[in-house]
């Protein structure tokens, strides 16, 4: 039993080390403009927010659609905090307003602050909203996310948020350095490290006694309450923690995009993440990660040709033009939801045994067919 | 040890429980029998803190626990085995048991061992998901889960519901064993015959009121009870 557990841990560790090693190798060998880096970075960022949404929807049973709002809070907090003071005081970004904040912080402080601000807002939004159930909760959180976006663009808050204008020139992915030095740090590896740490924390939470209580609430609220689990306190905890990590992923997204604008954090973003969670499997962390890389790879890379005139070597500019990718993408999603409604992983996690038995099963089937 | 005085509860727009009083002496098995909709479940849910009463007083070991929240009441040593078992289907048997001990900070190993000794079947299935157990096993798990909170008083809501007669027999023998271990039991049943056989004291409930009470063995021979609940 214990040996099995140790073997399992070693395998997980080796697998993770391989992934990070691969990312590092790619980063030192490929051109920095390669599409692979876009996919890896965005995929990792989406993994984090998908896992944070899964913590709420898959593990606590709270159908919340506020992710985009908390990502926005994180992105703005990060951008405003890490923008150098000189840039804030110049006309380059705050053209129509006088910047309110006259200091700047480092990348790590910015990331943590991004999470904390999102968590604080989640705490206060959670107080009224978490008393609602299922669809009503979804509608209310969706509403709050839209309110956050609208308020963010409000003229009065201009000195802070630059109104509806872009924020830029903050410490984005091209400006990552090793701490206390000017030596540049590989950006994709940086994203992977931050995301990895955050997801590790979520996994630890889910496997703790709090995580067990979350799952009990998801399975049966009344029974959980009868066991002495304080429903509201645990829901609030899950909501705040999920939003904390959504905030950090928002900040990472800002770093990845080099600019931030409230317009980017519409409901569509939440739906994208929900889709990833569903495709990956509700209640599966590894499923969410796999699905987000797949989703990003499809939408940013593999299906790109559908918009550009040439796909799989077929040149048909009349058919493959702007917008066709979306159509194909929608069809793929419909097929997935119809035929794989439990997602790639269901509510299970990826493990060595599962991969092995999957391939074994295939070989067996082939042999039987012969 | 446990007393209800003049309890009234509104539930679902009606006065489900009207001015009932009952007492449960330490170490005994007390049963509350009655037809569907008599207000039995509402009474238990109110004691557990899931429903707030309109009037009346609930006392446990001399302390007034009326209207306290469920976590407090579980912490005091009262636990509920809910109607229909309500185990957590997507948690393993072991996780289900651990949830039962959620409010405890001390070591649970000893109690886990006790539950496994009481239900060897659960030990065999400790890595199985709760939802994959049979009805009888689920009832064992529900009882085991409740025992994990180290209760002084265990309330059981229709433990025989939907179980085969042989399994029902098992469940009742389990109830007696748990009781012999020193846990006081308040049992709700529609299966009045079985319940009265194991109970020290019985209360008969009808449309929100207690109509009759007495020793279990006396009630089982009572003409009115026989007619109404035991099929002549």
Number of helical stretches of at least 4 residues of chain B? 10
Overall shape of chain A: globular
Oligomer: heterodimer
- Can you tell me the CATH topology of chain B? Rossmann fold
What's the rounded overall pLDDT mean of chain A? 88
Give the helix level of chain A as a range of percent.
Answer: 55-70%
Helical residue percent band of chain B: 25-40%
Number of domains of chain B: 1
Features:
heterodimer; A: 370 residues; mainly alpha; two-stranded antiparallel sheet; B: 232 residues; alpha/beta; Rossmann fold; six-stranded mixed β-sheet; four-stranded antiparallel β-sheet; 10 helices; 10 strands
Please give a structural write-up.
- The complex is a heterodimer of chains A (370) and B (232).
- Chain A is mostly helical.
- Chain A has helices spanning 2-29, 35-59, 67-82, 85-89, 107-129, 134-152, 158-161, 187-206, 209-219, 221-226, 231-257, 267-280, 285-302, 305-308, 324-339, 352-369, and strands spanning 167-168, 259-260, 310-311, 314-315.
- Chain A folds into two domains: 1-30; 40-273, no CATH class.
- Chain A has 16 helices and four strands.
- In chain A, strand 3 (310-311) and strand 4 form a beta hairpin.
- Chain A is globular.
- Chain B is α/β, with parallel strands linked by helices and 232 residues long.
- Chain B has one domain: Rossmann fold, CATH 3.40.50.
- Chain B has helices at 40-48, 70-76, 93-100, 109-118, 120-124, 135-147, 165-180, 192-198, 216-221, 223-229, and strands at 2-11, 14-24, 29-34, 55-60, 63-64, 78-81, 153-157, 184-189, 201-206, 209-215.
- In chain B, strand 9 (201-206) and strand 10 form a beta hairpin.
- Chain B starts with a strand and ends with a helix.
- The mean pLDDT of chain B is 89.
Summarize the structure.
The complex is a heterodimer of chains A (370) and B (232). With 370 residues, chain A is mainly α. Chain A has helices at 2-29, 35-59, 67-82, 85-89, 107-129, 134-152, 158-161, 187-206, 209-219, 221-226, 231-257, 267-280, 285-302, 305-308, 324-339, 352-369, and strands spanning 167-168, 259-260, 310-311, 314-315.
């Amino acid at each position: 039993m214990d040996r099995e557990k140790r073997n399992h841990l070693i395998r997980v560790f080796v697998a993770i080390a391989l992934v990070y090693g691969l990312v590092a190798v790619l980063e030192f060998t490929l051109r920095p403009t390669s599409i692979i880096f876009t996919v890896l970075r965005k995929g990792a960022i989406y993994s984090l927010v998908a896992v944070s949404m899964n913590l709420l929807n898959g593990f606590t049973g709270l159908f919340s659609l506020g992710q985009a709002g908390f990502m926005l809070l994180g992105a703005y907090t990060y951008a405003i905090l890490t923008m150098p003071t000189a840039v804030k005081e110049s006309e380059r970004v705050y053209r129509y307003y006088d910047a309110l904040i006259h200091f700047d912080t480092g990348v790590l402080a910015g990331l943590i602050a991004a999470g904390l601000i999102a968590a604080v807002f989640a705490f206060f939004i959670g107080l009224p909203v978490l008393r609602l159930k299922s669809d009503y909760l979804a509608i209310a959180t969706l509403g709050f996310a839209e309110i956050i976006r609208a308020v963010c663009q409000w003229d009065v808050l201009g000195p802070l948020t630059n109104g509806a204008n872009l924020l830029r020139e903050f410490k984005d992915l091209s400006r990552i350095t090793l701490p206390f030095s000017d030596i540049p740090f590989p950006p994709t590896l940086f994203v992977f490290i931050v995301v990895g740490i955050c997801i590790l924390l979520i996994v630890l939470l889910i496997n703790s006694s709090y995580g067990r209580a979350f799952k009990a609430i998801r399975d049966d609220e009344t029974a959980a309450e009868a066991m002495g689990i304080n429903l509201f306190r645990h829901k609030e905890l899950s909501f705040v923690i999920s939003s904390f990590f959504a905030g950090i992923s928002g900040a990472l997204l800002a770093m990845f995009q080099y600019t931030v604008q409230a317009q980017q954090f519409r409901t569509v973003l939440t739906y994208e993440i929900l889709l990833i969670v569903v495709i990956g499997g509700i209640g599966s962390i590894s499923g969410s990660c796999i699905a987000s890389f797949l989703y990003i790879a499809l939408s940013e890379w593999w299906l790109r040709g559908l918009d550009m005139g040439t796909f799989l070597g077929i040149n048909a500019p009349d058919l493959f033009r702007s917008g066709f990718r979306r159509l194909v993408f929608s069809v793929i999603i419909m097929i997935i939801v119809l035929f794989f409604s439990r997602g790639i992983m269901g509510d299970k996690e990826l493990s060595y045994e599962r991969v092995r038995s999957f391939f074994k099963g295939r070989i067996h089937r082939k042999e039987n067919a012969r | 040890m446990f007393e209800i005085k003049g309890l009234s509860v509104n539930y679902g727009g009606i006065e489900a429980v009207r001015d009932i009083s009952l007492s449960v002496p330490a170490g005994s098995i007390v049963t509350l029998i009655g037809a569907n909709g008599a207000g039995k479940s509402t009474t238990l849910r109110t004691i557990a803190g899931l429903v707030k009463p309109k009037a009346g007083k609930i006392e446990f070991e001399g302390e007034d626990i009326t209207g306290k929240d469920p976590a407090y009441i579980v912490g005091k040593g009262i636990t509920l085995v809910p109607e229909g078992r309500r185990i957590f289907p997507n948690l393993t048997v072991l996780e289900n048991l651990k949830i039962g001990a959620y409010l405890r900070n001390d070591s649970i190993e000893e109690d886990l061992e006790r539950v496994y000794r009481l239900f060897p079947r659960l030990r065999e299935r400790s890595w199985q998901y709760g939802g994959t157990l049979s009805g009888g096993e689920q009832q064992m798990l529900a009882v085991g889960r409740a025992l994990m909170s180290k209760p002084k008083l265990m309330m059981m809501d229709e433990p025989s519901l939907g179980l085969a007669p042989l399994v029902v027999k098992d469940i009742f023998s389990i109830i007696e064993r748990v009781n012999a271990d020193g846990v006081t039991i308040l049992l709700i049943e529609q299966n009045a015959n079985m319940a009265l056989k194991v109970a020290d004291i019985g209360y008969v409930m009808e449309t929100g009121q207690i109509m009759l009470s007495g020793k279990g063995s006396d009630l089982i021979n009572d003409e009115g009870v026989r007619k109404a609940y035991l099929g002549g």
